[in-house]
Amino acid sequence: MIHTNSFLPLRRFLSRSESEIPEELQRLIIDVAQSCKLISMAVNQGALGDIYGSDDTQNIQGEVQKKLDIISNQILLEGTEWTGRIAGIASEEMDAVYPIPDPYIKGEYLLLFDPLDGSSNIDVNISVGTIFSILKCPDSAHRGSDNSFLQPGRAQVAAGYVIYGSSTVLVLTTGVTVNAFTLDQRLGEFILTHPNMRIPRSTAEFAINTSNLPYWTDPIRHYIDDCIAGKKGPRGKQFNMRWVGSMVADIHRTMTRGGIFLYPQDSKNPQLPAKLRLMYEANPMALLVETAGGLATTGTHPILEIQPEKLHQRVPVIMGSTEEVQVVLDYHQN
Ligand code: AHG
Ligand code: MN
Ligand code: MN
């Protein structure tokens, strides 16, 4: 291994970043990254570890929790609660806000995460991930209360995901640029490998679960129909389709080579008109995508502008290459 100027571990990258990142925030990002290394190790164990299958528990969303959902949640809690940097934690796997237990000191940030994204892919050895979002705690009087979390995505001071794929990659933004770091398994360090990621403006690749087609709204059905019509259709070009079923993996492809990712509103279950969660799935991904030059919308509203009303609120998600997302917005307007 030759150490040159281009060899930049996460810790050093954060300390010399173009925008001044407050030291406590740098450390919190490193704490989260450290926990993700442990999750990565657990994922890599596969069938050799006790990580496959489900426990007999459900989360607040009524979803059966996989063993790895619970393990990952626990790793992130234990890796961050003691540090004195956060005032509260919210997670897909916990019904309510997790208050920082005594005797740990409360800090100035709020941490939100989807500890294990793509749970249906764990047991079949397909890429999964962790998504996280960091907010500033608004005031010291109600540090870590539920209400302190209900801030629009625009207020995030940092957001990122880690994909546990053929390599483990952390993709991070503090709102200025998006940078990706590959986990060097020998050093146990995230090393900068994709500086200043930019999403190509145009694309001919879409990602959507087409089995929901009967339940989509008209604009989405027309848009996908027109993509599938290919060169002979109104779009006049051949499209390709991908759907991993792990948002992290689908967004990572979109971030890397462009594309459009859609989990739109549908009427399959009238109680659940949207699937993805605003605060720890849609918002962090929207900040990454927009900082990399893409767009993120519900079809009618920018995701980052939504004022959350509930911690586990769900929202339609359409994000990726700007020109293609704009086309979907046009279908909604016409
Ligand atoms: P999670 O595993 O955290 O519950 O998230 C699963 C999400 C997301 O990762 C993915 O894009 C989507 O669910 C897949 O949903 P379908 O199985 O309906 O395609
Ligand atoms: Mn998820
Ligand atoms: Mn999850």
Describe the structure.
The protein has two domains: 185 residues, Fructose-1,6-Bisphosphatase, Chain A, domain 1; 129 residues, D-Maltodextrin-Binding Protein, domain 2, CATH 3.40.190. The protein is globular. The strands form three sheets. Strands 4-3-5-6-7-8-9-10 form an eight-stranded mixed beta sheet, sandwiched between helices. It has a five-stranded mixed beta sheet with strand order 12-11-13-15-14, with helices on both faces. The model has no long low-confidence stretch (mean pLDDT 95). It is 28% helix and 23% strand. The protein is an alpha+beta fold and 334 residues long. One manganese (II) ion binds next to strand 5.
CATH class of the largest domain, please? Answer: Alpha Beta
Give the low-confidence spans. Answer: none
CATH homologous superfamily (4th level) name of the largest domain: Fructose-1,6-Bisphosphatase, subunit A, domain 1
**Mean of residue pLDDT values:** 95
Work out the number of β strands: 15
Label the CATH architecture of the largest domain.
Answer: 2-Layer Sandwich
Please state the CA-atom Rg, rounded to the nearest Å.
19 Å
- Spatial strand sequence of the major β-sheet: 4-3-5-6-7-8-9-10
Fill in the CATH topology of the largest domain: Fructose-1,6-Bisphosphatase, Chain A, domain 1
One letter per element, helices H and strands E, the order comes to HHEEHEEEEHEEEEEHEHEHEEH
Number of domains: 2
Shape: globular
